[in-house]
Amino acid sequence: MYIGVSGIKAANTDLQTTSHNVANAGTTGFKNSRAEFGDLVASGCGGGFGIGVHTQDVNQLFQQGSVITTGNSLDMAIVGCGFFTVQEAGEGGNTLYTRAGNFHVDAEGRIVNNLGQQLMGTDGPLQFEADSLPLTNIVISDDGTIEATSSGGEIISPEGGRVGLVDFPNRQGLKQISDTQWMETTESGAPSDIANPPANIGTILGGALEASNVDLTDQLVNMIIAQRNFQANAKTITTENTLTETVINIR
Q: Where are the alpha helices (DSSP H) in the chain?
């Protein structure tokens, strides 16, 4: 009976993971996840015997999502394997990493995302002079160089250099947090040098965003499979219960 319970727990984890993927099919920069399982074996003098299943991990799949043109000049899509670096507001704010490139210029000239986190460049935080606002004709090159026309008609670039991209030795080791962002961990390793990224880190496409990499067809098939697994494991519990009642009722 407990083997069936372990199967139900595993199927429920699979369903939850699939549901999370489906819910974020329209989330910019989202990376879908996959629950992975392993069998449980009890060792004895006569050899091992199966006692159920357990969840080994829920891994993220970092394949490239579709690139969608938006027309918003400060939207950025990464074509490749890198991450944007953003800094939380306030002294001692966390450094986070994201693939969501929906940025804008705030009232102080800082390039920020919807959470107010500032985009980091190769030489520091990216910021225009406040007296140069509003900006027009913003152009982003594939190497991350940003140029814009100031309110005075001059061609200017923000302080902080180019938009910087970083990568990690083990992306699976990144800690996933909300809002399609990740944090560095010991398992992920340290990020690459933002000023001197690896040659294969990718390029930046301005005026576009990377869509979620969730394939709804695959997710709906996974949902059906997980539901069937749940039902099958529930059936083993009811069958075991029936057999137990039969033995108890023997006179």
A: 2-23, 216-248
Does the reported pTM lie above 0.85?
yes
Amino acid at 104: H
Amino acid at 192: S
- Give Cα 38 distance to the centre of its chain: 24
Contact criterion met (CB below 8 Å) for 100 and 113: yes
Q: 196: closest CA among 172, 174, 170, 167?
A: 167
> What is the rounded CA–CA span in Å between residue 125 and residue 35?
37
Model pLDDT, residue 124: 95
Q: Number of structural domains, the chain?
A: 2
Which residues, 6+ apart, have CB-to-CB distance to 237 below 8 Å?
A: 1, 4, 5, 8
Give the range of the structural domain holding residue 38, as residue numbers without chain letter.
2-62+214-248
| Amino acid type, 29 | G
Residue 10's nearest CA partner among 236, 241, 230 is 230
Q: Which residues contact 91 (CB under 8 A, 6 or more apart)?
A: none
Mean pLDDT of 130-142: 95
User: Do both 58 and 71 map to the same domain?
Assistant: no
What span, in angstroms and rounded, lies between the C-alpha atoms of 237 and 13? 18
pLDDT at 175 exceeding the cut of 70: yes
